[in-house]
Specification:
Length: about 260
């Protein structure tokens, strides 16, 4: 009798463990009955994700009752709970209604160089110098200074000052280039994950998504994105969202269909 109970206990334990072991689930996402590429599927329980291919197909690790968060630029936010049948067949088909979301256009204004001349200001400007002012030293020839150079405007400029000015200009150009590259990378990452992922999964305010990503740059998110390490990038974003100052005040988000 004891042996029979032991056998039954072992069998029951094996079944329970087998049910809780993550399995690879293959799925297909349809938007308005059309298989769609670049749809993001996030397993909220396991904090991992996948992206559908050109045929709308994807693969993701999951167990029974795991919730999959589905998001895309052109579809409504949706959550799907995996049933016992999904785990058994290792397959799921997801249908979502389309909905267009427009992103605000970002325009970067080019910074002007410190040596740039505003023609609007200088047009028809009267010439002011020692001769026009009829100063007593107007015709005095100044000694040649090897440390000065003459630019096209006729103004003598200290060579040391000019070098420092050029160095400052180059530094500002490098800073502007770095900021521009970072801004472009942030927009690419935002577009890749879609606003639905940040708002509904990470609980980040929509108007603060860019600030949140900016704060995550030091965590190497741009490098991870450029190396196509999507899962590692997703994990970094999820981890940093937990202590982000840009979290939604109300986490009970309701999606109202238009």
């Amino acid at each position: 009798m004891r042996k029979l109970l032991l056998v039954l206990f072992i069998c029951f334990s094996c079944v329970t463990i087998a049910q809780n072991t993550p399995k690879i689930i293959t799925g297909t996402v349809f938007i308005d009955s059309i298989a769609t590429q670049d749809v993001h599927i996030i397993n909220k329980k396991m904090a991992i994700g996948a992206v559908s291919n050109e045929n709308g197909r994807f693969e993701i690790l999951a167990t029974e009752n795991n919730v999959l968060l589905i998001s895309h630029l052109n579809l409504e936010y949706k959550e799907v709970t995996l049933t016992k049948e999904h785990i058994k067949t290792k397959n799921i088909v997801i249908f979502v209604d389309s909905k267009t979301h427009m992103l605000d256009e970002v325009v970067l204004e080019k910074q002007k160089s410190i040596l740039e001349i505003d023609t609007n200001i200088l047009t028809n400007t009267p010439i002011v110098n020692a001769k026009t002012l009829k100063l007593p030293y107007a015709n005095v020839i100044q000694p040649k200074d090897e440390k000065t150079v003459k630019i096209e405007s006729g103004v003598a400029v200290s060579l040391t000052g000019l070098i420092n000015a050029l160095n400052g200009t180059n530094k500002r150009k490098k800073q502007l280039k770095k900021i521009t590259v970072e801004d472009r990378s942030i927009e690419k990452i935002r577009k890749h994950f879609t606003d639905g992922f940040f708002v509904y999964q990470l609980k980040i305010k929509k108007e603060n998504i860019n600030q949140f990503l900016q704060a995550c740059i030091s965590k190497g998110i741009i490098n991870l994105y450029n190396k196509d390490k999507v899962l590692e990038l997703t994990a970094v974003l999820i981890e940093n969202s937990k202590t982000s100052p840009y979290l939604l005040e109300n986490e009970n988000i309701r999606v109202t269909k238009k």
